[in-house]
Each structure stands twice: as C-alpha cells, then as structure tokens.
Design a protein that fits this description.
Blueprint: H1 2-12, E1 22-25, H2 26-36, H3 38-43, E2 47-50, E3 55-58, H4 60-76, E4 84-92, E5 95-102, H5 134-144, E6 149-153, E7 159-166
Parallel strand pairs: 2-4
Antiparallel strand pairs: 1-3, 4-5, 5-7, 6-7
Helix pairs in contact: 2-4, 4-5
Amino acid sequence: MQKLIRELLTLSRVNTRGDTFSKTDLNPLVEAVADNLMATTQDKKATITCDILPTLEIDASQIQSLFQNLILNAVKYNQHHAPTVKIGCRDDGPVYHFSIADNGIGISPKFHQRIFMVFQRLHTDREYSGTGLGLALCKKIVERHGGRIWVESAPDKGSTFYFTLPKRR
C-alpha cells in the first residue's frame, strides 16, 4: 500500500513538482540506472547494452525514472534464461528517437494503448508484482518533456518501447 501511495504521489507531481530542466549528459544517467538495478539484473542474468546517448535539456530525475521503469520492466517481464535489454538512440531531425528493446514475454497489440493508462495491468500480482502505474508515469514524463511514447510488441517476441525527446526546449 505504501508503494502504491508513493507512486500515485509521484505520478500526480510530474507536472507540478518537477525539477527545472538543465543540460544533462544521458550516458552517466543511464549508467546510474544500471547500477541501481544491478542486483536485479545479476539475479536474472540480464545483459544491458546502450548506444552513445546525447546531452539534452531535461529534468534529470524524471528521465532517470523513465529509464529505470522501462529497463526494470524489460528485465521483470522476461522468462528468457538470459534477458537482454538494448537501449538505442538515433538523431531524427528535431528530436532524438530512443528505443528500449528486450527479448521478454511481449505484449499483444490489442493492449499497446492500454498499458500506458493508470492501473491497467495485464497480469495478476501473483504472476508479476506491480502497481500498474509505471508506464503511466513514463507517459507523463515523456509528455512533460514534449515527446511521445509507444510500444511495438507481440506475445513471445519481446517488446520495444520507443520515445522521443526534443533536441531543444
């Protein structure tokens, strides 16, 4: 219950209590996320690889939370004996186009929009623990930064979460 309340507060404060935007190198930010998740990734024998990421004007704590949620989901929703997570980034004109791809359980296309809504879980707590707020939080963070987020996935084929962030504010 405490986790649920904490996550609801975080979700409700994305727009009202976010930090100021400042120029931030995303490489050490993602390295910090990988360090935070080290126990989980080692336990699941997961491998995380990452392209060279840009420096952007962002709310660093929120973007760190975005990466942490997406990477953690990629490892958590994975039955593979060696989960893999690949973080990609490409320059796409006025935005950077990010991807976080995994070899996990995948998501049926009929749920691709639903997963970004508050409390919309696809699994019971016995199957996978969680509150149903993580991807809703990711969506709010990306939108606060002027980007968009979506997923491409199919059951048993892994998932790739994409999001864009503008180069300039």
